[in-house]
Amino acid sequence: MKMGCLNGTTISLSCLKLAFPSYPSSFQNLPFRRTIKPLSAAVQTSPATSPSTTKVEDQGARSHWKAAIDFKWIKDNKEAVAANIRNRNSDVDLELVLQLYDQFFNLQKEVERVRGERNAVANKMKGKMEQFERQRLIEEGALGTQLPLLCLLDTRVLHAGKNLKEGLIALEEDLLKLNDKLQLEAQRIPNMTHPHVPIGGEDSSMTTKLVGSAPEFSFPVKDHLELGKELCLFDFDTAAEVSGSKFYYLKNDAVLLEMALVNWTLSEVMKRGFTPLTTPELVRSSIVEKCGFQPRGNNTQVYSIEDSDQCLIGTAEIPVGGLHMDSILAETLLPLKYVAFSHCFRTEAGAAGSATRGLYRVHQFSKVEMFIFCRSEDSEHYHEELIKIEEDMFSSLGLHFKILDMASEDLGAPAYRKFDVEAWMPGLERFGEISSASNCTDYQSRRLGIRYRPLEAPVASPRKSKSNLAPPQFVHTLNATACAVPRMIICLLENYQQEDGSILIPEPLRPFMGGRSVISRKS
């Protein structure tokens, strides 16, 4: 077949082999909408994983992030993942996730096929035009960027070419929307669970160790609220008027006690090779989500800032987790150990009852948090190290406490395994949680985009390449509470109360309180 061109020349179309009849019939009925930007890199990657995006530079924009979830592994281990979801009492719809993944996988293959056909046609058509003629038509605005010979083809070919281009745009837009929906559902899947974790609710948690013994008193025991009132340490009433319920003023020696606890904790943890940090206390909501917390929704524990994408942190785990976001670390840098001081803010939605009175459950408090980035094969070792640090510190303060291996339903979404420490609180006449230590494996790092590059590749490639670097691996993250100040104040006041109403100061804290050994009534 030959066709006349606008300038009177003739071009043979037989060699172009334009197989327009093979284009998907669905193109004929596609509702072609506005032109969108080219498909994002996150969607163009292999469907087995969706990598996290790079940092958002615009301070006012909300980042649209993707977790590097291994969908193929989830599909291949469907039964184990489903059992894990049941054991954690999660409401994630795994069947919907897998259905969306299959749709995404098939649509992505279709997009790649059509894109390949479009590129092949464009390349063949480009080859049939002299460079000077192509340049002239470009300058005259007669050529599109994708199909340079559209102006030379007859009406039928022009229509088919436009359908191909517009159909691909529509498919890419559908793929983006499907990927967003897939991510939204899949990001709710909790981490897998350590095989030794007890299955069930909080009552199924197992005590692994009991340390010390409860103090014996020869006088009526007071709780921290009564002690604090007599020693003029707290003011809840004024704080309620100023800020609302579950806020407080620390006063007099309680302020010194908080500072002593923070400084003593930092000094003890730094001796073990941890780098001290203070952190931002406002973070982007996307960082909260990437760490596995839900900043919005029913019963959220997170305070969100209205008309912004920022939240108040509930723990320093969140900003420390984001410290190396979207990074590839050298293996020689690992482990990275941090100890961070911050104020923490929690809504405490649903909390009520006498067990939450006073300092036990409040909206704002000071806390020292430990955080470790390490290789995957080392995370269980460092989990044990964090628990040992907690045990040594609480033992040195003379507390009676127990360590619990928390049951599956009591694990947050990021935690592979979590150990809680509960200390005896005589005034409350029960054990109360003062600390926890969690191994989150690669759950957070897949969302935060934190990887490390091994020193050596596991298998030498027979092909020569530009680089012999080993492929990067996701780090494992761990976090543990070194000191949650209000709960520690409860423990110290109630366990070290004296018959005359004074409070003995444990020896390790005395150098941090000017050498004082007792907190007593002001004359």
Automatic annotation (TrEMBL):
Domain of life the protein comes from: Eukaryota
Protein biosynthesis is among the record's keywords: yes
Keywords, sorted A to Z: Aminoacyl-tRNA synthetase, ATP-binding, Ligase, Nucleotide-binding, Protein biosynthesis
Chain positions recorded as L-serine binding sites: 315, 346, 369, 479
EC top class named in words: ligase
Site location (Important for serine binding): 481
Gene Ontology biological-process entries: seryl-tRNA aminoacylation
Entry annotated with the keyword Disulfide bond: no
GO cellular component, one term: cytoplasm
Amino acids binding ATP: 346-348, 362-365, 433-436
Pfam family, one: tRNA-synt_2b
Record-linked InterPro entries: aa-tRNA-synt_IIb, aa-tRNA-synth_II, aa-tRNA-synth_II/BPL/LPL, Ser-tRNA-ligase_type_1, Ser-tRNA-synth_1_N, SerRS_1_N_sf, SerRS_core, tRNA-bd_arm
Aminoacyl-transfer RNA synthetases class-II family profile domain mapped to chain residues: 271-506
GO MF term (any one): serine-tRNA ligase activity
The enzyme's E.C. designation: 6.1.1.11
PANTHER family: SERYL-TRNA SYNTHETASE
Identification of the protein by name: serine--tRNA ligase
